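Appendix B, example 12.
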Amino acid sequence: LHLRLQLERKYKPYLYTNHADENALHMDLIDYLGGTDLAGYAQIEVTNIAGGRADIQVSYGPFHLYLELKADGTRVAPADKKAYIQQTLAYQGADVQISFLIVLRIAPSDETGALPHLSTLVTHATITVETVTEPRHVVMIEVPGNRKTPSALR
């Protein structure tokens, strides 16, 4: 995330457009994971997960972590996006009770044009599911998109 806040348009053009979609984030993230120690453990578009398809699955032996990706044109915090949270939780039904929701924020920034600080872009929610005794966890990461270069903020 730190690097995505720093890169120029020529390296990650999707971060600077108002019409970026989930697929751009998807490909960026799977390319990143493929260049780390997780290469070979991360899979894209995995089917038959909670009766559907998970965007990215990272396998660790017998258990898996799921990453749900969204492109969102609002300024509503991921924790307040009930449908996003529910979908992310669904993948935990037969696996570990933590998953990740990664949101490409394509809503225009505020009038200053300043990027949010890194410390505000990663949050966590603990959710209690009525029929489960242990709480579930969702780590939420926002990736600022639709941004302007500093020289364009005059």
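The first helix runs from residue 2 to 6. The mean pLDDT is 91.
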